[in-house]
Design brief:
It is a single chain. The protein is mainly α. It is built from 5 helices and no strands. The protein has helices spanning 2-24, 28-34, 54-80, 85-109, 112-116. The relative contact order is 0.14.
Length: 130
């Protein structure tokens, strides 16, 4: 079961690497911007600070955590049975934090969240005047 979980996380990492290539590799229009650009291989509207392997590392780490939970989780249950559920949840998230930036950094630096907010409706609640 641990091997199957690791394989699933590995495939997820490969899939996300493919998605990153589609999202962050310059398009032909952006490559045309490159002509005459002194910046080398990065056009002005491109985000070029990405490298292959981030997603494999991120999903690999999380796969290892799931495998470890399967292998030793039952032995640790007696030590964590007294902990509140919220504390356990926070401790689990803290285990993923060391590699979390590998998943979100390119989105943030590439302006993805800024651009996608145009597609997300914003609901504002205004105070009614009497």
């Amino acid at each position: 079961q641990s091997l199957a979980s690791l394989a699933a996380f590995l495939m997820s990492g490969i899939y996300h690497e493919y998605v990153w290539v589609l999202m962050f590799v310059p398009t032909s229009a952006q490559l045309e911007e490159l002509e005459g650009n002194s910046n080398g291989n990065c056009c002005p509207s491109c985000y070029c600070d990405t490298w292959v392997g981030k997603q494999l590392i991120f999903f690999g780490w999380n796969g290892i955590l799931i495998a470890l939970e399967y292998l030793v989780g039952s032995r640790l249950a007696r030590y964590s049975s007294w902990m509140p559920r919220l504390l356990k949840s926070h401790l689990i998230v803290l285990l993923a934090l060391p590699v979390g930036h590998l998943f979100t950094h390119d989105f943030t630096r590439g302006g993805y969240f800024t651009h996608i907010q145009a597609a997300i409706p914003i609901i504002r609640i205004s105070k009614q005047q009497h």
